[in-house]
Amino acid sequence: MEHTNHQVQFLPKDPLEIDYEALPEDASLSAHLGAGALAGIMEHTVMFPIDSIKTRMQLNLSSKDISRGLLKSISKISSTEGFYGLWRGVSSVILGAGPAHAIYFSVFESTKTFLCNRLTNSSQFNTKIVTDENHPLIASCAGVAATTASDALMTPFDMLKQRMQASAAYPENKLQSVRLLKFAANIYKTEGLSAFYISYPTTLLTNIPFAALNFGFYEYCSSLLNPSHSYNPYLHCVSGGIAGGIAAALTTPFDCIKTVLQTKGMSQNPALREVTGFKSAAAALHKIGGTKAFWRGLKPRVIFNVPSTAISWTAYEMCKELLIRDRRLN
User: Fold this and answer.
1) What is the Cα–Cα distance from 210 to 233, expressed in whole angstroms?
2) How many CB atoms lie within 10 A of CB 304?
3) Cβ neighbours of residue 99 under 8 Å, at least 6 residues apart?
4) Most CB within 10 Å of its CB: which of 50, 163, 271, 326?
5) Which of 138, 134, 198 minimizes the C-alpha distance to 163?
6) 163 vs 142, 154, 186, CA distance in Å?
7) Three-state secondary structure along 130-199?
8) Which residues contact 204 (CB under 8 A, 6 or more apart)?
9) 240-273, pLDDT tens digit by residue?
């Protein structure tokens, strides 16, 4: 259908600028996959011990000493369970985070390109990849699409990670195998396939607003701190940290519910073992701990996401810059 002169424009008619923030227009799919995979692995592994502490706090598995501070928590877990206690479950993250984040950033870039081209009616920019950093709302919508796709792959790995993080705190599970494949096989045998995906709807309820806030605030902060859109790792790091902290704080209640669903099969609380979905998990959590139960682990969640999101964005922008530089040299 031809566009007429009377067609409503949703966004300014100014041409989109193709700058360093996008991969080159002829970038292959493998370039996006590689950049996203590296960013995801770095994001999750560097701050993994903080994520472990958050999981234990949300499950009320920690003593008062552990609940009082992160440094005390790290010291106590290391002394009682060994250094590996802080890294139990990291193998699941490494295995799942790479492919999941590769999909995440690829879907984000392609969706953002589609929306920029469609909403700005800019037919001259029907290139493979186009990124305009001046539209936080478009970035938020692209982030929602990206997290929906990536979570479909990552949810089973995240469930395994949280169960392995919590397993040492249950005496009856201390001798349980922490080998990933055997651990997954035992869960499948006792609880079935549904155990791996029971938290997927709740994961989306957590990660969709997280992604929208993360991408939106990242691009908003980037437009304020780096209006020229030049490659600046420091400003990418700051923008990513701010966006990740805000998004993490506001979505903590959903994350608490997700943790309950993903670890219900090993819970010692009968009420938590019987939950079947978001509504029942929320009700059980409120009955046990009241409103405060939905904010357990807030501090370590924010502390985890500020640097991890900053690392993720910085690593991704670095990969894109290197790809563009290599293309220019060739």
Assistant:
1) 23
2) 26
3) 37, 153
4) 163
5) 198
6) 31, 14, 12
7) CCCCCCHHHHHHHHHHHHHHHHHHHHHHHHHHHHHHHHCCCHHHCCCCCCHHHHHHHHHHHHCCHHHHCC
8) 147, 148, 151
9) 999 999 999 999 999 999 999 998 888 888 888 8
Q: Measured between alpha carbons, how far is residue 130 from residues 220, 222, 277 in Å?
A: 18, 17, 39
CB atoms under 10 Å from CB of 298, counted, come to 18
d(CA 32, CA 323): 10
Look at residues 123, 128, 111 and name the one whose alpha carbon lies nearest to residue 27. Answer: 128
Closest CA to 137 of 225, 213, 251, 242: 213
Calculate the dihedral angle through the C-alpha atoms of 258, 87, 317, 134, rounding to the nearest 10 degrees: 20
Structural domains of the chain, with CATH:
29-319 (1.50.40.10)
For the cut 80, the answer to whether the pLDDT of residue 63 exceeds it is: no
Q: Reduced to 3 states, what is the DSSP secondary structure of residue 296?
A: coil
Closest CA to 210 of 308, 290, 111: 308
From CA 251, how far away is CA 122, in angstroms rounded? 35
Please give the structure tokens belonging to residue 328: 């220019």
Reference 176, options 266, 90, 275; nearest CA is 266
Nearest-angstrom CA–CA distance, 167 and 174? 6
**What Cα–Cα distance (Å) separates residue 18 from each residue in 24, 85, 223?**
9, 46, 15
Q: What is the pTM of this model?
A: 0.70
